[in-house]
Write a structure and sequence with these properties.
Length: 248
């Protein structure tokens, strides 16, 4: 999910992150573009490795699982810290750009997210987690390759994706109060599809192949965007696989 926003040309908003004049001028040299992409994918790989390792620990260790169930404050502390850090990184430019402060915040956020993903995954059967993880890897790779080679411009659809995200959040809240298996399947399927679209959107923002591109100075923001897309895709697939299999 992209925490960046689509620029408003009339009011001049968003110019710090995006340019709308074809590929960004900052990406004119291929070397700059490739260096930025390598840096983002490098950070993303470390983030996903940390998340996978923590999740494996949570679902594979009965002691850790028991501790988490008995001490729910760990989940809520990680949730609050994760939300606070992502808001800080979204609003405070220095926190995103100044090295090594940006990496400290980035991996602190990643650690909190890893605890959240691990805690949620521990509530599911291991086979469901493995199926969802395999699907996530396959879908992410396919969509990333598609985003890199397609001539279609998904970066211009940021407003539509953002509106759909709010609709999804509303449907998710309703599904909490009106439990229905069919509704859960629909919400999970739509959620997975939406974050799949966000992967294409954020990858194109990163490589600068669309109408909008993200500044090469924002490599931390780019990594967070794609990381959250993948995490949310996994969580929706986790729920979808469980509902399809009919497990509680």
């Amino acid at each position: 999910m992209s925490y960046a926003y689509v620029p408003d040309e009339e009011n001049g908003l968003g110019s710090a992150l995006f340019d709308k004049s074809g590929p960004s001028i900052e990406f004119a040299e291929q070397e700059v573009r490739l260096g930025f992409v390598r840096k983002v994918f490098g950070l993303l790989t470390v983030q996903l490795a940390i998340t996978a390792g923590v999740t494996a620990l949570f679902i594979g260790s009965p002691a850790v699982k028991s501790y988490v169930y008995s001490n729910q404050w760990t989940f809520w502390t990680a949730f609050g810290a994760s939300l606070g850090l992502v808001l800080l990184l979204s609003c405070w430019e220095q926190a995103r750009r100044q090295h090594p402060l940006n990496l400290i915040f980035l991996f602190s956020f990643t650690a909190c997210e890893a605890v959240l993903v691990g805690t949620i995954s521990s509530m599911y059967n291991t086979d469901i987690v493995l199926i969802a993880a395999t699907l996530t890897v396959g879908i992410t790779l396919c969509l990333s390759l598609y985003a890199l080679q397609t001539k279609r411009d998904f970066t211009a659809a940021g407003g539509i994706l953002f509106s759909l995200l709010f609709a999804l959040i509303g449907a998710g809240i309703l599904s909490i109060f009106f439990r229905n298996r069919v509704m859960d399947i629909v919400v999970s399927g739509v959620g997975a599809a939406l974050f799949g679209c966000y992967i294409v959107f954020d990858v194109q923002l990163m490589v600068g192949s669309g109408s909008y591109s993200i500044s090469p100075d924002e490599y931390v923001l780019a990594a967070i965007n794609i990381y959250l897309d993948i995490v949310n895709l996994f969580l929706y697939l986790l729920r979808l696989v469980q509902e399809i299999q009919g497990n509680n």
